[in-house]
Amino acid sequence: MGYSDYTKAYKLGKKDYQYRMLHGLLPTLEVLDDIIPTKGTFSEVPLGLVQIPTEQIVGTKTNGRSNAFAANFMPILRETSEFASKWAKLSTSHENEGIREPIKAYEYMNKFYVLEGNKRVSVMKYYGAVSVPGTVIRIVPKRTDEKENKIYFEFMDFYELTNINYIWFSEEGSCRKWLERGRMKSGLRTNGWSSALSTVGLWQSTRREIRRSCRLRWGMRFWHLSRCTVMKRPDR
Q1: 223 with 210: CB under 8 angstroms?
Q2: SS3 of 44, please?
Q3: 3-state SS, residue 46
């Protein structure tokens, strides 16, 4: 435990770092502050405490810690560093009792960027956790005619109805099709996106049907994203 796990994680980080360097890719974490639009062209919406899919955590909010990790969130600072010591202690704590303190993160275009808790995310990714709890603020860009922007606004409507954040659509209209499918199977006949929320019963019925469709299409793995579990140490 502890330092031995850090050594393994460090090797995974260096391997990913070198691979990305050889292929002309960014070898460290993405930085949200370098990506988001000019200040004043977006708004911030608090989402509260949510389960964040670890595969969708891709970077940090600021560049302060971005160079301490490879792009896969594995550590790349030397094993003799203070950072390594703290990572190792966190790993041991996770083995013994699990990591339950929520991280703080920003969501932009359905990707997540950590403000507080980078080492926690690194440890959880190392142990193969499917999701981590986090207090999230969403960055909402202005509407444009770009395809990705349109898909994102459809996704936000989809999320408002389902609280599902672990699937993404590549084509316009896909979110609407999923919602309509869920409504039809739930016995709903509505024209507007938000009218499905007219009663608690209708909302729960629609949500159950959409989640059932997700399980059938992507398997049980995604169904467990809404649950925070203590992962066992990986055999690496």
Answers
A1: no
A2: strand
A3: strand
Q: How far apart are CA 18 and CA 11, in angstroms?
A: 11
Start-to-end Cα distance in the chain:
12
Q: How far is CA 113 from CA 57, 103, 149, 228, in A?
A: 6, 10, 18, 19
CB 164 within 8 A of CB 47: no
CA 128 to chain centre: 14
164 within 8 A of 224, measured Cβ to Cβ: no
Give the whole-angstrom CA distance, residue 158 versus residue 175.
6
Q: At what angle do helices 174-185 and 147-162 cross, to 10 degrees?
A: 30
Per-residue DSSP letter, 75 = B
C-alpha distance from residue 87 to each of 29, 50, 77, 148 (Å): 17, 24, 10, 36
pTM: 0.78
Cα-based distances in Å from 126 to 20, 31, 47, 147: 19, 21, 26, 34
Q: Supply angle C-alpha 100, 46, 63, rounded to 5.
A: 70
DSSP letters, 105-137, are EEEETTEEEEEE-HHHHHHHHHTT-SEEEEEEE
Q: What are phi and psi of 105, to 5 degrees?
A: -150, 160
Measure the CA–CA gap between 74 and 122, rounded to whole angstroms.
6
* pLDDT, tens digit, 9 for 90 and up, residues 51-101: 999 999 999 999 888 899 999 999 999 999 999 999 999 999 888 888 888
